[in-house]
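Working notes for the structural subgroup meeting. M.R. asked for a predicted model of this chain before we commit to crystallization trials. I am recording the input and output together here so anyone reviewing the notebook later can reproduce the run.

Input as submitted:
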Amino acid sequence: MPENTPRRPLPWFARPAARNWTCAPAPAEARRYHAALPGYAPTPLTGLPALAAELGVGQIFVKDESSRLGLPAFKVLGASWAIHRTLAERARGGSPAGPVTFVTATDGNHGRAVARTARLRGQRAHVFVSEGVHSGAAAAIAAEEARVTRVAGSYDDAVRRAADAATAPDAVLLQDTAWPGYEQIPGWIAEGYGTLFAEIDAQLTAMGAELPDLVAVPVGVGSLAQAAVTHYRSRPTGHAPALLSVEPDTAACALACLTERRLHSVATGTTTMAGLNCGTPSSTAWPYLRDGLDAAVAVTDADSAEAARDLAALGISAGPCGAASLAGVRAALTGDGAAGRRTALDLGPAATVVLLSTEGAAANPHGLADRP
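Returned structure, recorded in token form:
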């Protein structure tokens, strides 16, 4: 950028009063269910002192979701728990015992998690993928023996197509975004994500580290952020961390809704952060985002790519969505207005920061060579 070109203001929202908001805790059954799954192990929480020094905080840890139950992203935590709950409820209600087709829309990782879990449970999957999903990600879903349908449109368009298809006999919509009248299964998916945050607590305690002062969460429809808010705002006592949502600047639906204090849709563009390319927050997530998030920021594809390169140099495999957390924290803590943003986040020089790296590089083939 030429020196005399003015920089556009950072897309930013802050509401420090969120740290005083509380909610009920999530049920603990999901974590026990995950712990009993074959191959379960907590994903790594890695300290990166070089990043902490760069950003002027005490410690930075990255929760590395590049290998979760055999998949390169965190999404299987929500999909597996929701499928388990769905099948249990159907059996309890006397539904036929034959195979179910789980129908969903995806920007990549959720669809593969649904397809993998359905296959392992002897069920079927039909996954609708929006036009921004890389062909390699779609092929990985098909390799899980799922039916894959391409949609010539956005993620929101794919969700509508999936909802229509799920009206077929023996089909169940397993979507990670909610709307009025469709809320139970997205709620189960958010409960499943809570396992990730319980692991973080246990890992920090085992390392003798302080609990977080700031947690950065990539946001698409907001279900992971809902899980983060539920976890950190349901503690009866103790320090409440600041929670920062990070989105692509071409699909910053949460930031727009927070700024206007109302749930609505935004038009989306293209982004290498395919899993975050969503135009409408989940209706069940929205109250948690509105009341429990301290701040929101939007970053560019170039910001995410730089963060992914830097994480790779430090031994962390991060796809564009996973690297968004670092890109968002960098944007918040550096540049014009950084002092005010640090104050809004109540972040001092000894602060502990946790970055959620929600996918590995293998999850999203949009790399530097094929960025749009």
